[in-house]
Design a protein that fits this description.
159 residues; four-stranded mixed sheet; 45% helix; globular; NIF_FeS_clus_asmbl_NifU_N; iron ion binding; iron-sulfur cluster binding; Iron-sulfur cluster assembly scaffold protein
């Protein structure tokens, strides 16, 4: 089973790393932020188009980073469309906990949030917890997305 997950991890990283989804700038973005990982030099900008009800209508990113960083950003953009800002933050908390091996500390609503299927999709990135220096690569886009929602222009993985 572990070998199957490792193979899937490599396939997903390669696919999304070489052909990232939603790699573009959103002209009518209501939120955006620049993220930087000084450890490896990854940089990206996350764009969100959020409607009046707080629902993510569109999400994208541009930037330059390693395969893990790019794949994570690509997966994130696929998953966040149609989610509320609260759900986006819940996904970040759960994804971050999964990548670090920590217990999720949800401060953004109930834990029975209907996001299990999304977390199953993200599980292919859970292998980064075996390589602590790569956790920041996998979570950069997610940190940047939460910064954008919170109205911050930029964030660093060293903050």
């Amino acid at each position: 089973m572990l070998d199957d997950l490792r193979d899937l991890y490599q396939e997903v990283i390669l696919d999304h790393g070489k052909r990232p989804r939603n790699f573009r700038q959103i002209d009518n973005a209501s939120h955006h932020a620049h993220g930087h990982n000084p450890l490896c030099g990854d940089q990206l900008v996350v764009y969100l188009a959020v409607d009046e009800a707080g629902v993510v209508q569109d999400v994208s990113f541009i930037g330059k980073g390693c395969a893990i960083s790019t794949a994570s950003a690509s997966l994130m953009t696929e998953i966040l469309k149609g989610k509320t800002e609260v759900q986006a933050k819940q996904l970040f908390e759960r994804f971050h906990a999964m990548c670090t091996g920590a217990e999720a500390q949800s401060t953004n609503g109930p834990t029975d949030d209907g996001l299990e299927e999304d977390m199953e999709r993200l599980e292919v990135l859970s292998g980064v917890r075996e390589f602590p220096s790569r956790v920041k690569c996998a979570t950069l886009a997610w940190h940047t997305m939460t910064a954008a929602i919170d109205g911050k222009d930029q964030i660093s993985t060293e903050d």
